[in-house]
Amino acid sequence: MARNFIYKDIFFTNVLRILDERKMTQKELAERAGISTAFISDIAKGQGNPSILTMEAISIALDVSLPILLDTTDLDTRSLNDLAGGKAPQSLPPGYKRISAVLTDYQAYLATEWDAANRKKLRGPFAPRKHNKVV
């Protein structure tokens, strides 16, 4: 069975979403990133296979961090599983979701507080235990 890499799919869906949010064209992105319009078009159609350097140039041109373009997506779990050819790898335990959202300042404050509390909770029992060395 051929291995299907879903990261490029997550990447291109995020690029398309940000282009739409910013009313930016693929041509403008290509110019800002120093990449050919044809290659940006291939990426937007899910046909391109960008290198990490190309993805970095695109993230800089969009003024977002590269991990955001690779880690979050607006695709639902079913679509991600279909792209992965089965079950997409999960980085969080059951009952937790990673999202990307547009929020007011106050909502962002609340979300940041919730995020910090959940990260602390997840680190608790899963944190590696330190062993004391006897010298």
Low-confidence stretches: 127-132
Number of helices: 7
CATH topology of the largest domain: 434 Repressor (Amino-terminal Domain)
> Which percent band covers the strand fraction?
under 5%
Order of H and E elements: HHHHHHH
SS elements, strand count: 0
Global Rg: 18 Å
* Level-1 CATH class name of the largest domain: Mainly Alpha
CATH architectural grouping of the largest domain = Orthogonal Bundle
Percent of residues in helices comes to 55-70%
Largest sheet descriptor: none
Globally, the shape reads globular
Distance N terminus to C terminus?
Answer: 52 Å
SS-derived structural category: mainly alpha
User: Average pLDDT across residues?
Assistant: 80
Number of domains: 2
Organism: Nitrosospira multiformis
Pfam families: HTH_3 (PF01381)
InterPro entries: Cro/C1-type_HTH, Lambda_DNA-bd_dom_sf
Protein name: Transcriptional regulator, XRE family
Task: List its salient traits.
135 residues, mainly alpha, 434 Repressor (Amino-terminal Domain), 2 domains, 7 helices, 58% helix, globular, Transcriptional regulator, XRE family, Lambda_DNA-bd_dom_sf, Cro/C1-type_HTH
